[in-house]
Every structure is written in C-alpha cells, then in structure tokens.
C-alpha cells in the first residue's frame, strides 16, 4: 500500500510538545484582537498567517519568541483562553491526534487581572469542551492534558510548580520551563525541580535546542527532568566517522540507555536555525540509533505545521513508512505523563488497532 498524506492524517498520532499560545488559528487571533483592542501587524487572515510564519522564519530564537507577544496578548480573558483551548483540541482531533500534552505559561496570562488559578481553570474548561466536541458516535475521542510552563528568565517557577501539583488530578499532567536558553540555565530553578521530585510529579525541560550539551546535562543530572524539550543537540555528543562507525559520548549514551524521551520538533528547529533542513535534521541519526525519539509540532501557527505535516515531511525526507510512524507514536505514548495503565490502554486500545486498520 502506498503511503499518502491522507493516510498519515488518519493514522493515530501522539503529541507531547505543543504550545497553546503557539497554535492559535489566525482568524481567532484577528477576532480576539479586535475585541480586546490589541493592535496586530497585519489586518487579514492570510496576511497575519504570513506575518507569523515570516517572523518565525527569521532564523533567530529571540525573534521567534517575539511573535508570542501577539498570541499571548489576545489571551488575557477567561473567555479568550477557553476559546483558544477548545479550538486547539478541535484542530488536533481533526489532525488525527489521539493524545496530546499542551503547554503554556500561566504567568503570561494575568495582565488583565486573572489569577494563575483562573488561567488554568479557563484552559481546563476549553480542553473539556474540545474533548466533548471531538467525541464521535463510535466513541472515539482525543485525550488532552495540560503542562504548566514557567518562564526561565522569570522567578515564578516555584509558584508554577506548586500549581502543577495542586492541579494534577484536574487535567494538569506536568511542568516545564521554556524561554531563551542562553544565560538562563535550568539550574536557576533548582528549588522548583527539587520540590516536584519530592512530590512525585513529572516534568520536562526545554534544553538542547539553541544551546548545547551543558544545558541537556544540567536538565538531566542536576534538575532530574523526565524528558527533554527538544534535546536535539544531544547529537553534539555523537561522533560519526567517515566509515560510518558511530561513537556515543557518555551523556548521549546515558540518554539512550535510560530511554530519556526526546521531544523533537523538526519544523521548528529548521525555522530557528537549530537544523538546516528536515533532511539534515538529527532526527534521522537519532532514529537510526534508536534513541527514544518522539515527533512534535512545537508551535503550529508560527511554523505553519501540524502533526500530519511533521510526519509527512519525515516520510518525504527519510522514506519512513507506517511502521516508523507507529514507532514514533508508541514512543510518545510510552513517554507521556499519563498514569501507566492509561498509557497502556491508549497504546493497545487506540494506537495499535488504529495503525492495523490503515
Ligand atoms: Zn517548545
């Protein structure tokens, strides 16, 4: 059977690294901005979509992060946040995603008086509405959980970590830190990570995207991260000789031995310059070496991408087949911050039968 883009869309997919404020529909940004009196750099849906993509395409992580001033800017009321969260679930369901962990930083949505708890409740409401709306008559559904992100240049990580624990039985699966890596090592938030470990809570850390091995090493060996947000620069610790012989450094060997999940985001990496093209993206090597590779979107609006697009670009660049896509998907499901029995239920009850039916 020939693999088509439509077949990839129908295949069950699992997404661990997606930013709520990076996945708005351009039309929704326009609509919410008009209501909130927020000025935008473009006036039509097409122009705005192009503006986001171009700004994100500039090759600099700092410029990339600038685009979030507008998405975060229009997400300052509970209604706006709930709408964005609901549409996020609808868009992921239409894309064939069966399980997703979607992250955002509550502290960025309190400019107009919402409390951090209000923000989390608004996202929870939107996710619940979206999951209800996506339920098919046959009982198929999408499961979506929140990850609470703290901004690495700010000083609220402990507070956000406490909220992740307080909300863990109400749709919050874990914690993350994000933002420009340079100058803000994860060890700056050590108290938050140590607190989460004492609480038996899960967390991932954005590390090894623009910045190299020290950032990955700190995230794992100082902070105790369960997963690496990106982690793509782990290839700096892998040597491929001219004759094809591969030698892993101690950190790369540790990551592979311990099955540490890598939340790889190919399209985003190409945009920020962390990789030159999909074909040259380290995901090819890391997959060949059987690291715990997962495929993710990062920011669907800025990168004009989807899980189907990400998977399809890998099919085109590396010739992957359905077996490979299923491997990425099972890897992601195994690495989710969902309880073990729920992960197994999704793998055996949804992912494997879904691929078998294609
Ligand atoms: Zn990210």
From TrEMBL:
Classification via Pfam families: A_deaminase
Positions annotated to bind substrate: 19, 21, 179
Gene3D superfamilies to which the protein is assigned, alphabetical: Metal-dependent hydrolases
Catalyzed reactions: adenosine + H2O + H(+) = inosine + NH4(+); 2'-deoxyadenosine + H2O + H(+) = 2'-deoxyinosine + NH4(+)
The organism's place on the tree of life at top rank: Bacteria
Cofactor note (record): Binds 1 zinc ion per subunit.
Name of the protein described by the UniProt record: Adenosine deaminase
Organism encoding this protein: Nocardioides fonticola
